[in-house]
Structures are given as C-alpha cells and as structure tokens.
Amino acid sequence: MRMGESKHKKIAFLTLGCKLNYAETSTYERGFLEAGLEVVPWSQKADVYLVNTCSVTATSDAKSRNLIRKVHRVNPEAAVVVTGCSAQLRRSEIEAIPGVSLVFGCNEKSAVVPGMLKHLGITQLSPGAAGDVFAAWSSGERTRSFLKVQDGCDNFCAYCTVPYARGSSRNVPISECVENARSAAALGVREIVLTGVNTGDFGRSTGESFLSLLKALDAVDGIERYRISSIEPNLLTEEIVDWIASGTKFQPHFHIPLQTGTDEQLAAMGRKYTTGFFASRIDHVRKALEAPGRPLVFFGIDVMVGLPGETPEQFARTLEFLRDRVRPAFIHVFPYSRRPGTPAASMPGQVPEAVKKERVAALEELCSQLHADFVEANRGIRERVLWESTDRDGFMEGYTGNYIRIRRPWEPSLSGKITEVTI
Ligand code: SF4
C-alpha cells in the first residue's frame, strides 16, 4: 500500500435498498479505511462518492438515478462510482448519467475497492472476496452486525428481478462466515443478523448445509445472539427449528416471506409452497419454541399486494389468512412493482396504483393491530434485552430476543450488555 497517496482523499457512501447492500457498503468502507482514505458523510465534500443502488421497484431505480444526479450537481468535481442491483440491470442508463466514472455490476463487487483505488491512482489490492461471492458484514452499529452469508437466487419468482440482478444462488464458505463473526465480536458486536437474498438456500456453491452454518456460528465466542433475516418457509425446515429450540443463541424471531395468502396466486408467482404448508410451518415453530411463561415468537412476514390479476376477493382472503391464521407480529407490505423483463410484467389484469395503495393501507392497519396484540400478549414475561450504545435524549433502547423494542433511562455502563427485563 502506498499510504501517502491516499491520505488526502475523501470518500463518501450512499446506500439504498436491502440489508445486503448495507453490509456490502460497510465492507467497502473498511477496505477504503484500510487503504488510508478518509470516510466522510455524503453531505460533505469528498473526492469520490460510492452509490450502492437498489432495483427492487421502479421507484428504487428512479431514486438511485436521482441520487447519482444530485451528488454530481452538488460536487461536479468528484468521481461518482455506482454499484448494486440498478448498476447491474440498467448499466447503460447509469453510465450515461453525467459525472459517473465507474460502474460495477453485481458480479464485480470484489473489484469495487481495488478498481476505485486504481482509478484514484492508489495501488493497494485486498478484495476480501470468497470465490464469486462477495463476503460482507456491517460494522456501523456497535452492538449488532448484519453478516452476509449468501447471495443470489435461482427461484425466478414471476415478479422478481433479483435472480437477474444478483445472479444465481451462492454462499460464503462457513469458515469465512465464522471468521467474519469473530472479527465482529472482537469489535464489540454482541448480536449478528444472518443476511442473504435467499438465506436458507445456503450451501449451493460450497456443498455445506445451512444447519452446519448455524451450528458453527453458535460456537463463536463473544456473539451472544443470532437472528435469521428472511428465510423461505420451505427452507426453514423442522430439523433447523428443532435444533434452534434445543437451547441455542438463535432468537425466537423469524422473518419469512409469504407474499400472498391464496394458493392460486402463490402458484402464479412461482412460489414453492401452499398456504397450508406455510401455516403448518408457523405452527411447528410456535410448538417448538413457545411454552407458558416463555416469550412468544416474533414473526415478520413479507406480503406483496397487487400482483397482476389479484381480485378484491383474493386480497380479502390474504388479509383473513394473516389476521385469523398466521397472526404475525409484523407485516412488511410491498406494493407489486412492474419490472420489465419479468414474467409478471406481461400478465393480464395489472392492478391500478390507487387499488394497490388501498390494499397496502389495509395491511398496514392490520399490522399495527397485530403488533399491539403481540406486545400485549408478552406482558409480564421476563426477556433479555441487548442495550444499544446510542444516547437518545437521555434514554437508551434495545430489543428483546423476540424483537420487542424496550426503552429505559440512559445508563452508559449498560451499552452492549444484555440484561433481563419484564416486558
Ligand atoms: S425467492 Fe425471493 S429473491 Fe428469489 S426470485 Fe423469489 S422473490 Fe426473488
């Protein structure tokens, strides 16, 4: 490394989209810090801006392009480097935006740091890649880190651009996930959220299993809690659930995509389960992890409204399925966004935006009710809270294992510690 060259260079990051993008940006950030660059907030003047884009909806694409234009307008001298899903899917449009110096698609992530350093005239190469999957973990928060274990997807659901943008399913080897978890622990991180596009599909490229990954991570000293972010219901197997329930560091908190509560729409989407299967999997998790006096399991469920052809009656059934059968603690609602090139874009019966808006609002209202019911049902139960390290106007906050946010007066010695509270 020729540190002298990089000392005066400043870099700023702008990230849109999912947890994977944030974990990846955080990893780029560490790479540039190691190379001697100074990281500044994006509102400040920098020599180079890295924009990590998102393409999940048409709005995310537009937001990504607007941000790039804005950065160039505010600081026309700076180099703008663009990566992420929008850079992959709309490369020529992005390359044509004034000010854009370099574009890295999703299969070029390990080239971002060395490529940018080269562009800045700095010689230092340490890509931090694992095969063709870019290993990443976030270090922005002191107590919690998002650890990327998997990327890409082979499912090709009818509405989704992810398999085109991020490529086929592959994973970071278990040994490297463990190494990253140890590095996070050494920085004071106590909780890790396993992140991936299709996390449960872990193992495709290394022949390892998701359960072996969970077992290896469970043994890492210093990390006291794990959560699994977004796992397909068919991949959260009974074997995995039963192992988690056997007394591990994995918390009673699951983020599971449902997308719609009718079998005909699940089939139209190309999802790999029925509503009956979904409900039975939820039942199994509850049976394995819940007991009188113990915390209830937090389920965060993704639901997409307005897939082409979704009738009012089908939407009503989805709402009913969530309200009466699944009863999650949270619903992540997304309106369907028409993405050119996907099968759903040419399906008949596109749902008008105003109708999608109404359906989003109805599910958000149901979500508020279900979340309030969940907190109420946990009242009086003893749970462990990991306290965060931010002083919020004299208060501090933290999450219970089952993801209820708790607030207490600020006490610096508690930050990064786990204590028991009565909910
Ligand atoms: S499983 Fe998820 S990431 Fe993969 S295609 Fe379907 S929606 Fe997209």
Care to describe what's here?
The chain has 423 residues and is α/β, with parallel strands linked by helices. Among the domains are: 3-127, 3-Layer(aba) Sandwich (Rossmann fold); 382-422. Helix content is 36%, strand content 22%. It has 14 helices and 19 strands. A six-stranded parallel β-sheet has the order 8-11-12-13-14-15. Strands 2-1-3-4-5 form a five-stranded parallel β-sheet, with helices on both faces. It has a four-stranded antiparallel β-sheet with strand order 18-17-16-19, with no helix packed on it. Helix 8 (174-186) packs parallel to helix 9 and helix 10 (238-245) packs parallel to helix 12.
Secondary-structure map:
Layout: H1 3-6, E1 10-15, H2 19-34, E2 38-39, E3 48-53, H3 58-74, E4 79-84, H4 85-89, H5 91-95, E5 100-104, H6 112-119, E6 129-130, E7 133-134, E8 144-148, E9 150-151, H7 162-166, E10 170-171, H8 174-186, E11 191-195, H9 210-218, E12 225-228, H10 238-245, E13 250-259, H11 263-269, H12 275-289, E14 298-305, H13 312-326, E15 330-335, H14 353-377, E16 382-387, E17 395-400, E18 405-409, E19 418-422
Parallel strand pairs: 1-2, 1-3, 3-4, 4-5, 8-11, 11-12, 12-13, 13-14, 14-15
Antiparallel strand pairs: 6-7, 9-10, 16-17, 16-19, 17-18
Residues 153, 155-157, 160, 162-163, 197-198 line the site of iron/sulfur cluster (SF4).
Q: Would you identify the regions where 5 or more consecutive residues have pLDDT less than 50?
A: 1-6, 124-131
- Note the total helix count: 14
CATH top level class name of the domain at 3-127: Alpha Beta
Tally of strands: 19
Main β-sheet: number of strands, strand sense, barrel status?
A: 6 strands, parallel
Write down the overall geometry. Answer: globular
Percentage of residues assigned to helices: 25-40%
The radius of gyration computed from the alpha-carbon positions, rounded to a whole number of angstroms, is: 22 Å
Structural class, from helix and strand content?
A: alpha/beta
Q: What is the mean predicted local confidence, pLDDT?
A: 90
Q: Cα distance, first to last residue?
A: 52 Å
CATH architect. name of the domain at 3-127:
3-Layer(aba) Sandwich
Strand content: 15-25%
- Tell me the strand order in the biggest sheet: 8-11-12-13-14-15
Hetero groups in this structure are:
iron/sulfur cluster
Could you give me the name of the CATH homologous superfamily of the domain at 3-127? Response regulator
Can you tell me the CATH topology of the domain at 3-127? Answer: Rossmann fold
